[in-house]
Records
---
Amino acid sequence: MRLSCAAAMIAAMTLPCVLHSAAAQTACATGAPLAGLVRDTTLAIIPGASVQVDGGKAVTSGSDGRYRFPCVAPGKHTLHVTADSFAVLDMAVTTPRPAELNLTLQPGDVKTTVDVSTDAEEIEQPSATSTGASKTITSKQLSTLADDPDDLLRELQQLSAASGGSPSAATVAVDGFDNGEGGTHLPPKSSIAYIKVNPDLFSAEYRNPPFGGGRIEIYTKPGQSTFHGALFMTNSSSFMNARDPFSTAPASLGKQRYGFELTGPIRKKGSDFFTSLEHRDISNAAVVNAVGVNAAGVQTPILQTVAAPQHMFIGNLKTDWQLGEKNTLIASFDHWSNDRPNFNVGGTNLPENGYDNSQYDENLHLALVTTISPKIMHEGRIGMEWDGYTYAPNSTAPQVSVAGAFTGGGSALGAAHEHEIWSSIIDDIIIQTKNHLIKVGIQPEFVHLNTYSPTNFNGVYTFGGGTTSTGQTLTGIQQYVNALNGAANGSPTSFNNTTGSPYVEVFQFRNALFVQDDWNIRPNVHFSSGVRYYVQEKPSITAAVQPRFGFSYTPDKKATWNLHAHAGMFAGRWGAHGWESMVFYNGTDRSVNTVYTPTCAGAFDPTTCQPLSTGSVIRSVRTLQPGFRETYWSMENLGFSKTLPQKFTLSGDYYITQMWHYARTQNINSPTNDLPTGPRPYGANLNILQMQSSGRGYGNVVFVGLTNQSLKKVQFFAGAVRVDIIDNTDDNQYFTPQTTGVTAGEYARRDNQGLWQIFGNATVHLPEKIQFSANYNGTGLQAYNVTTGFDNNGDGDFNDRPQYAVAGTPLCSVNPKASPCGYNTPWGELVASGGVGSLSRDKGEMPWTFFLDTNLQRTFNLTKNTKADHPQTLMVNLRSSNVLNHLNASAVGSVLGSPNFGQAYAANPGRRVEVGLRYSF
């Protein structure tokens, strides 16, 4: 089936290309435009100048002095520029470039030679569709970033957050292909030629709005005409690394990474290859920081350090073929696999709640590029992705969850596995005229999921606490103590399980068409406009028309100022995994059952209790609202960049946004008297979780950045972004409000959304050719929701928030048997029930996180002849992540009255240090 699908798609992609009969020149799918102005020493424009790249077909600067090559392959090139009455200019250029390349010709007949690299002194001027958050990471800058793909991804995600989105939500594209739904995996760093962060986010070519997480575009290296390669390894041992913050015992903490890369010709001319393979063994530990309790009510900290290693393979193979003068074919295949025992262990999750997580991801990419004429180019791409996972639980016993204390028993995910096939076609035509660059494209996608998911088939007992018949308020841990003793008020709050077939199959089709026009009105005035149309099935979206506009103006002759503005509409997209949950809970193939306060005879034993036979069974189903509409965002932007003395560049951007028809879920059949078995509008004992397009949101984002890449000894970039996005959906289509139909307290910042993101990187050139670099990022005031663990309104969702205590309510620390009793919090005295009003959603704020990663490296030349075909070098580096060993909390106790309420109980790893060697030839 894989081969037949691939063959059909190759035919669909290739057919338009072979129909082109016009003469063509060499092009490259991984290339980038090279453009700018031709001027004299007085900065006057020079029309009619001839510009050649590597002796190829010349382009002529227009009446506005502008020249443009639509696609230049990454690497080193020679630019040859001639014009009447001016000296010939030969310039060594490395592409891609983060900015336009303006050419200055000298008067007279003397030949001029200049060397310009991508890291040379230049100013990155925004285009009409880019903003101040856009950045190109070139080869020299890339060498300062982490070698480990996971650490590199984190550093890139933080840079992409300059657009205002959550770092983890960034879209990653490799050689033009977005990562599929199986996850985000980077190619080996050694295979990367350059990276674009947040390019042209208002372009109609892209789906996500800037605050949707940003965009990271990775372009891999082409093969070389002569053989080159490298062997590399890194090592990190336990004695080099800091113990994790909540660990009380030593653990095996280390990393061994090794691999190779090789590039060279396949035939003498016209084809080459690049391949790399690496293996990583990571010794890590999961730290359990929970609270246990015995039948006597004695609470005991559960502090365990559990081995959680990773075993990973990453490899890729890429080849370029010149098919005559008309076409260039680029084919690549990459593989990623990872095995992670004891996954999901840590924090309040006990070891028996973990599972072995084995994942794989394979991609086949084909691209065919035809340059129909110097001004028209066609790009056809096809991508096939096969990915999946297998979960092997440490235990299949029923799960037991005590709110805010621990989660034990078996994993609720069960022995699951999934296989996904994701295919995409990207077909673009690029047309270059005198003042316009027009791009027209289509982006169909097909997704097939085949999943075996016995989620909750083992059952989950929840001890969330609640109010007794006598009015006493119990926490989840007090309720659990009563259960261990077989005492009154010891029944679990609920038992939930799923029965039926664990098999789920989903097919989904999505497609987008776009037109984008970048218009150079004058050399200093640019205007962009475009429209994107999106359609998909499951759910049906057919009216997603999204216009986009951009404007850029450089008011001064020396181009030290740039002002830009943008406006656009963006439409939401449903992923196949999101729809899979709708199918899973359709109420036909599976039954999701809940019993409130089930009775278990004697002392609580989850393996012998028969909860479904002790109470009324309430079923839950998911449905889609009739007339469900697609989500829309509107977004506007104003920004600037200013070149200061000494070539410092200051930039700033301000965004505002509105969101309509945001997807969220409400239980439209909630009980009318707050009792789970009470009367309901559409039948008894049934939760109807309806997906609705009733959500709303709004917000603003502010970005400020300062950079200087021109100083001799130090180059740096620093920035900060303030993200204040408010909505009543938590950016989650399955989010449900505390009470159906009530919006009070629901408008808030999103869970885990930081109000502030700060980031920066710097490279320092030390004596003896030693290079020191640092990458820093921090997140401040991440929001989290404060709950009680209760379901007071009986709607099946344990998301009730605390209430404000009435005057005179005693504290639980003074009189724990009072009903109610309260807790002192940063928001005043709160009670689980019996108070007034309700705390707003996501009022909690996590501590700041700070990550400082450093690298110290030195490259030794092993070949004395600098012009040798195979120069040999040895690079030695010492790298550290979280070098300050700052406690970066990842979870805070959020259940009122629980033992760890308001306290961090899980964190990201402490300081890690590794030594690396890289031999290149």
---
Amino acid sequence: MEYISSSDKIWNNKGKQKASTSSTVQTLSEENPNSTITNIVHPFIRISRPSPPSSRSTSPSFSSSRSRSRSQPPPIMTTSYQSRDLKTRVKNYFGYTDSTPETISVTSWAKSSTPDARSAVTTYLLSLFPFIQWVPRYNLTWLLGDLIAGITVGMVLVPQSLSYAKIALLPAQYGLYSSFIGVLTYAFFATSKDVSIGPVAVMSLETGNIIASVQHKYGELYSAPVIATALAFICGFVVLAIGLLRLGWLVEFIPQPAVSGFMTGSALNIAAGQFPAVFGLAKRFNTRDATYKVIINTLKNLPHSSLDAAFGVTALAMLYFIKWGFAYLGQKKPRLARFAFFASCFRHAFVIILYTIISWRVNIHHKTPRISLVGSVPSGLRDVGRPYITGELIGAIGPHIPVATIILLLEHISIAKSFGRLNGYKINPNQELIAIGVNNTLGTLFSAYPSTGSFSRSALKSKAGVRTPAAGLATGVVVIVALYAVAPAFYWIPNAALSALIIHAVADLVASPKHSYGFWRVSPLEYIIFVGAVLWSVFYTIESGIYWSLATSIVLLLVRLARPRGHFLGRVRIKPESVEGGHQIRDVYLPLCSEAHQDIPVEAPPPGVVIYRFEESFLYPNASLINDRIVQYVKANTRRGKDFSGISAGDRPWNDPGPKKNESAAIIEEQLSKPKLRAVILDFTAVANLDTTGVQNLIDTRVEVEKWADAPVEFHFCGLLSPWIRRALIAGGFGQGNTRSGTALEVAPAVIENLENVASPHPLPERDSDGFPINRTTDLETGEQLLNNHNQNQVASGSRTPSSRGSFVDEKAIHGVGLNKDGTFKRRTSDNSSRTVPLVDRSTPFFHFDLPDAINSLNLEEEQ
């Protein structure tokens, strides 16, 4: 006999090995009936050998064989037995038994999950440069759309860049530097055609707060541009590392209400800080205080408004008048809608140009300007070179890095995903993070401060008909022209007009009442997170609003994981109407106590059967809660197996007080009328993960309910979608063994498999043009009727026993009825291309395909 390791065998030779093993055992037993058979455990085969013969044996045949083995022992057999004994002891030490069903192995999973190294590296490198995919197909039609969209965005980007640099406490030219490098680099690394990169209001506000904090600590040791470029380099490097390591999924831990909350709070903070400049009051108090303080101080100082108010208030009113006026024109005159759209897009540039001309006419003859002006803006790219970064500066910026990085990540990814869904394409979040990281790290060579995606400019770019990310190159040309040709004219731009432009831009970031009410309707708890983020940003700082959003979101996630709902189920019989008008009765299982189904009578499961459905993964945070929930339900709805009522207090367990003295006979009779626990069915359909603590709590649950019932209790599982969950349950001792009748009862249907085209056991429903599922009831009922008729014919003819009902299906016997990819039955022209495949391994009779199969297995057992 030669030992065969599991690594040397192919996947489908299990049956042959068992057959040969059984024949070996039978031969040895016939040679010596008194010999002891010792099993060597192996995950795939069972090899048996006789124990060393006793000296008292009187069998002649065996005695002669023993003498031959003493004179000349076979070296191969001795070595093989010693090797097998060692392996047996090792496996027994780790608790591996011969009856353990085959499960997924770490080795096979690693091999199937590990891609080819060469192809993986090639794919990774190509993904870093997305422009390689679309540049070869570039054409004139795309060029025209990109030019229109790029120039349109550029006309908005230039005045916004000047305004946002003011929020960041930087000279105006640094906003243009950030705009130029942002749109230029993003075109080569982007997976979104709609996003416009550059200075944004929220990031500019955070940059200004960091600059003010560092300068408050170190004075004029570090200038504002030095601090801003160092911040851009550090944040860009962090974001770039996240993208290269493919950790973009971390962003998904921050929900949409949290993002919307601190964006709304930040927008209110920015708008409140710009109103003093609109009225010429910026020098009278600190505009970077908490939002509510700025609002109060602005109202107190309104009587001291200067001539700047004439520019700021009228500029803000004109911006809204142009926006609403052309929107109304586009609705009333559909033929002029495109003209109205582009005319509205140029309102930012138009207002800035108009008020710059007015400012020049007002101040040209005065040595001292009568209003606050932007001042001199040097032409071209003057401050080019590597950033100045020291350890001391990094230490000063360090505490602010998490918030700044989160703003870069969230604002850009949320915008990119939104426009991807709107325009029918999917972005790569990791590649978008790489694009942001490259933009900010390379931008420091041109003295750029942190920049990310802008919602308002991205919306404008999308509506303008952009075709590819190359539109950013046209936008970059507009910025360069402004830097080199128009920079001297920037001197006369009124600061009040820029503040009006900022207020007009950030107003779109404030969540509308309809939007915020939607949070309340979907999840009141998430609405609290949204409101809390807004309030923290308004009454304290935007950093506190972000930290509130993150902390409460994570706490809510953990609470939902640790306190899952779960339901005890009962049966409801329904009669869905088919297309042809017939009726087919089927069973569905709903919660016994549910607010959503108060008017539906739910029938309790069979006596002594408990059905529980999980709603979350079964992990260590919620394992103890679910254990207590099941045990308490069992004790409340089933009777105790052993009667302790007549036992004295001294013999009673310490934690069992027993019946009360004044307890009526009716209550005792009611307790005795309850059924005895027979089986627990656990629906694992919603369970995606099961850890060691969960398995241990399942074992504890089984021990507790069996002590209560004073008898073995069957634990059935259905909906095991993950092979790792099945592996974990088998390791915990679940799923195996026989039922009380001694028969392995698995009634799950088998998949009718086409060898050329395998049907999915969990198909997605087909949908019509409106997105609704197509009703396939007629097809399913027809196929099921054929299967049922065939099964009844086989039982009646004696070719099949009732105990094997549903364990497999012979597709040839039902006249070629098979399964389509959508799960419906179909007919095949050939009966030789199919075979039967069981949905659930027969070695685990307590694992079922779905809940009806688990119930049917209990009913079948009762019949037997």
---
Amino acid sequence: MLSQQVGNDRTILSLLSTGEAWVHLPEDVMFAVPGLVDRPTIMRAYDPQKEEEEQLPPKTIAARVAVLKKIRALEKEVETNYQSVSMKIHRILEDAPWANSEDWQEITTAEILRTIGDKDVLVQLCVHKFLMANHDRFIAQTSSFLETQKFWVRPRQPLGDLEAVSRMLAVSDPALDGFYKKAKTLVATSRMDQTSSSSPAGRANISITFTSEEQAIIRVLHDFVRSTRSTQKDPYVVPVATVMKRMGLSEGKVDQAVVHKLLIEMGVVAPWDDPVTRERALLCVPSRTSIPAPSTSTSSGASLSPEEFYPRDIVEHVRHDFKDLPAFVIDDEGAQELDDALSIESIPSEPGSYWLHVHVADPTLKIHPNHTLARQARIQYTTSYDIHSTTPMIPSAFMYDGLSLGTNSRNGLSENVLTFSCKVNELGDITDYKVRAGLLRNVHVLQYNQVDKLLGLPARSQFLPFARKANLESRLVTPSLAPAQVEELRTLYNISLKFVANRFLSNRFWFSAPTVKVTMDSKPSPPNSTDLTHPNIFEGFPQLTYEVGEQAYDEIGARRMVAEAMKAACRVASRFCRDHNIPAVRRTSTAPDATDEALADVLSLRDPDTYIPYEDIMKKKVGFPQGDNQVSTKGHWVMGVPDGEGYLRVTSPLRRYADLVSHWQIKHALAADGTPVQPLFSHDWMTEFAKEMTTKEVALRALERRHHLFWALKYIDRWRADPRNLAEGPNPFDNLEGIAIRESSADATLRRNTVRVIIPQLGVRAMLELRGADEYARRPMLGFRVPVKFLGLTLGTKPELGVTLRDV
């Protein structure tokens, strides 16, 4: 098994039992046996220059034969031991409460192995095969599975529904005919009336009632609409496909996108339903193996219960009063979780140097590590900023009770903060730092666009491919600030430029890729009904805006000012923990993987902000290793942070649980006021938490990408379905281009060759289908552009845009 990294895209090359080489994604690897085959043999088994030739070189064939012999020998050992291992697992399932629960549960192969009392890799592989084979009960988690070996355990009701529907299908139960008739009526009515520009709303259709058997069928269809692994069988495929085929309402392949559309047309879920984010509930299934947070005590030694808040401010005796120093809270219009503010102080004795203060909201003023809110925050891990709704990590009612910056100021009260200060010289170097609990008395809440206007900076441009440019200036209210405060903002902006210039001189760079941002004018959108007794009649659809951008164009002006200050605060936090020997989980990254020649080329292509066009990164085959979370002071290459310093995220405790942990750890040290004290969270606890962080972050990022793509394609689908859009004005689909971001690959299942591309005009990734030998010969190489045209799209939990080559 070999791997290749280009940009942020990594692929794996595996040898199949047939002797063929297969290029696939890292997520497709479900189990690995280290050291089964030595590396020299692996390297001989693949010759990229000869792979497409009819006859492979003899040394390559010999190496593959050697690998296959090892694999088949292992398979025979597994066959010999599988039966006895499976019997032990069956006995475990008889007594385990998690195996027969009303709620979703989580299990790992390691837990099963501990119960069996055998950690041998062969037994581990047998356990893995057992859980994969019993796919009706155990679902391999969709992210980081190779590292975690975690399975979700299906609850009793979905299992009962699946068994009931399968039984109905086996005996042709008359209840099925009644369901088919109602479904056809509902779908026919829905397809006759699909146009509405009104606000979204829904009401129960009491003219139709679903029986208990019909509700079970609906739940099975609903449960089928979820993301699954192609490497594990799906127990829903056969019963759902059979129901859909007998209903006769769809043609072709029955996938979760087709079933989701049926549920919309039946009035079971709303037209604006998002099936992707429903999966977040599984990502938030509590883990039984997580190490609990440390218990918290008051100064008298009494332990705090999960319902009690801190009875007092534990760092009140060391809080620094910033008095009338202006602190600027800068965020987007409508932002709700305001968790940071900036201040600046000149240093008369050191012209050109300044103290930059980053004040961060202090939810740990009240919440201790074992509070109910803290435990829930750990499960959810982060605030979910979905397009159709926002789910705060800390409940809004509590957050507005003096935690979100600006809420106290509006009532004439001071703001409690944790302040990370750095002394910055003319070169953008951090020459000194301070970390203090702080008190703010002069807070100004501003918007990014307002600050840009005050400083005379260009407004952030918008590219709206489906609409005229929005007029942001018409509703912009210029805040009333004293000239001295405007100058302080200007100094803050100039310091951000020094930070960027410093990274440029350090030969750092990052790529800038097209992105899409879909926004909903009014959210949350109306939820689905949880009562399946009646279908619903839905009307209207939320108003959406489709915007294409790039990070290089987005992080400018006031946005850059804030972003650079936050990076500096994270460096200060890491230095503090390093110098006080406090365990902390830092974000790390290593230098790009590329030849010296390629690195020299891309460095020459940087803009002054250190960005390089995505296509140039691809052409030069520069790979960025995936970032990691570690309890060490390893550097963060992209941020310009050297080894020995580290980068500790602390600036978003209202919306990231990891930042809350960092605040508890730092404040525990501050409260000691110089007295030696054991850290609140031990090194071992932090090491385990780093793994938990990585697993959560990878899964949530993957879900977020699919969520944004779903809404982008939903917008495109609705736009193309309205004939007025194609008749009026220029068509955004007329001159599409695709930039190849992955080498071409063969899809054996669909018998086609494809290339993963990104469409800069739309800001989304797409699958370029190559039809025949002629188009395959015209396939684009990595980083190169090719004219493409719209082919189709798929919604559901695995949204995808399809394109094909366009003649010019």
---
Amino acid sequence: MFFGLAIAFTFMTAITQYVRHELSYDTFWHEAERVYRIQATITYPGQEPTAFATSNHPLRNLLKSNFSEVEAVSRLLNTKATFHRDGVMFDGIVSKVDPEFLDIFDFAIIDGIGKAGLADPRGIMISETLAQRLFGEEQAIGKVIPVSLYDQGLDADFRVTGVFQDVPHNSHLAIEAIVQFDESLHRAEILSNWRAALIFTYAKLTRGANPISILNRLPELERQVIPPSGSWDVAESLVNTLNRVDQLHLFQSGVDDMKPGGNLQILYIYALSGLLLVVISGANFVNTMVVQAQFRIKEVALRKVFGAGLPQIQRQFLPESLLISFGAFYLSIIGFEVWGDQIFDLIGYQGGRNGGDLSMSGLFVALTAFALALFAGLFPATRLAAKTPIDSLRTRNAAYGVSMRFSRMMMSFQFIIAATLLIVGSVVWAQVQFIQSKDLGYEPDNVILLNSLPSDAGKSSDLFSKLSDLPGVVASARGMSAPTEGTLPTAGFSTPGHDLNAEYIFPVQFMNPDFFDVFDYELLAGRRLSFEYGEDHYSSERGFNMLVNEALIEKLGFGSPQQALGQQLWWGQSDDRRFITIVGVVENIHQTSLRDEIEPMMFWIREDFYFSYAFRTAGRSVDEVFADMERVWRETVPDRVFVGELLEDRLMKQYGPEMKLLDFLQVAGVLSLVISCMGLYAVSSFLLAKQRKEFAIRRVLGASVLQAWKLAATRAIKPVFWALVVAFPAAYIFVTEWLNGFAYRIDVPFGLFGAAAILVIAVAVFSINAVAYQVSRVSMAALLADE
């Protein structure tokens, strides 16, 4: 009981800190309730609506010109960058913003100037950490930093105009350097593009402004300024929403967000599991105090005879419960100091001890300990005080004094929680196994991915050739993005006979022909693309060839993969259309995680859109090849930071929350079962002690020890059976809701429900075996000797 309570308090401290951290995202900005991010949901032709974290480039000017409620509005575009300093390179992110950005977010300026510094197109503001990395203890203001911006292939010198305090970890913003959003460096068709959500847009509303009013008027304005794309009514397909920044992390994350959003469902699981651990151990504590109180029934009766009232009796019980509860709390503090980091790692909380003030979490747990102590002390005292002295004093044995219905109910409640946690943990395990064994449509083993490629085409080709020739590299490819690297760009097309410029819009993978060798895609019909065929290249003026996946031919109703060969689609504007011909069909692949449906997909050869290298290795260890690649990279492109990763590692990162959840539920399930069984043993000892005479009589009437043991064990674990009756539907509802978050999932594994039930019953029987055996062997002679 005591150690179970201490363990529960330890976990509760860590989980409370994690929950507080998740709920605190972006609440620290000044007047955060007035700051909104505008997010676009676009319904592309032939597709379901896509909810983005981003919005359209022209939206900023539309809001600025037409809504007096908008006090400030700014765009934000993050791009990968390399910072150079004294021959050393630092990889990072540069955020391009409008000057009003610093009116919306109150960055703490440590040195230099703030908003005024963004008036200079070559001025840059950097974070305190980046300033330390680049300049050490030197003064950063006025220093010049050579920066390579990957999105534009721009190498330029930027002068430091300000140093700001690091953005706290609990923010959706990923910002370490800020420069002016220079429109002259961006193509006009991008800045006027309403068809794609390519940029973050933030707005600060005036005090008292109603965001609903803005949303109600915005569609009409959009219809006035957004031109159609052929027959596609872009304005009707676009829905913008205003979302408060302090609610983005858990409630409004979308596609292409700066950071992975929080998972509200998993947060609920952790919070509920931590609470239930305390409830189980607390129920155990209360139950034990109730059982122990039965042996003081005559003491309480005598005190009442001599004039003691309810307050006096309660004061007799409270010190003991307070001592036990706060003793467990003190022990939990020691446990947290020793195992706190391990628990944080178990639940995936990266803030650790430095992620926020722990005092509030400790205070919450202390108040919980106090509440438990009050209930554990006052409840049995009040219960015993309610009996009349005559009824208590005439009871020959204290064990017969008070009904144990409450204790049985508490035991059932504990096992409901334990069984539910075990079942949920088993289902999460089964889904994780399914994820790990699912055929993804490609082979992820021994594949190395490289990003942050040189912007110069000549350097990029030279680097790729050298890396491809390394020993151990058996296949190499270039492409837009490898599987797991996120969403792909889209292309619109129409079927012959339709006037739409974009009857359908589907993702397209730009690649070279060796892409299939690296990822081992299965060709179902037709042939692969090749440089040997001029019309296989996107640049062919007469039209070009492409590969598609099964989902696309199913969407377009082309029949079987073989029947799809030779089918043609129109691509381009009405005045410049080209035919695209299907020459091959590949098996469906999971470009993103199993949470998402497989989308129709096209494969084109287009060399100006290669942003990723992929290499398959064999014959040498991956680590050796990886080290050689880093060496060649540094020799060939010394101005770029080497960024490489294994496809297997990236694949596992997609399911990091599920892996952490599985580990936590396994630990929580075992702990809850052990604590529940400890309580079952204590209560069963008392309950069966009340029935010793019955079992002695049964023995006299001829019952064997085994028969008596079966009866005793059945009675002792009866609360467990009732608990399973409730736990099964509760667990079913929960796991069904959780599994619905995956487009590809297992069916609810009822076999695991049965296995969990068998485990719970077996452990429960084992825990009360000794007590049941002692009662089953009691003899009438021994019982009479006690009398």
